[in-house]
Amino acid sequence: MTTTQLIVSIVYFVVSLALIIIVMLQSGKSAGLSGAISGAADTFLSKNKAKTADARMAKMTKWVAIVFLVLTMVLVLI
């Protein structure tokens, strides 16, 4: 294993852990029956705050996934 392969493998490992953590931190799209019942009690501001946090997490997931795929291709080519 060359130095380049070792460095890319370490970065690949860190990115894969980051991707797992980001996906696990995201909220589910459906809250089930309890979300339907208590959903009417949410205020407008709390809904917007959740949407912006979810939007940021979704954007972060996309970028980390792209880096993950690029690193996968790099590892295959090395």
What does this structure look like?
The protein has 78 residues and is mostly helical. It has a domain at 1-14 and 50-78. 82% of the residues lie in helices and 0% in strands. Helix 1 runs antiparallel to helix 3 (44-77). The radius of gyration is 18 Å and the shape is elongated.
In short:
The protein is an all-alpha fold and about 80 residues long. The chain has a domain at about 1-15 and about 50-78.
Mean pLDDT: 82
Total beta-strand segments: 0
Pairing-aware structural class of the strands and helices?
Answer: mainly alpha
Order of helices and strands: HHH
- State the helix count: 3
Instruction: Give the biggest beta sheet.
Output: none
Q: What is the end-to-end distance? A: 10 Å
Mass-distribution shape: elongated
- Gyration radius (Cα, Å) is 18 Å
* Percent strand: under 5%
Low-confidence stretches: none
The amount of helix comes to over 70%
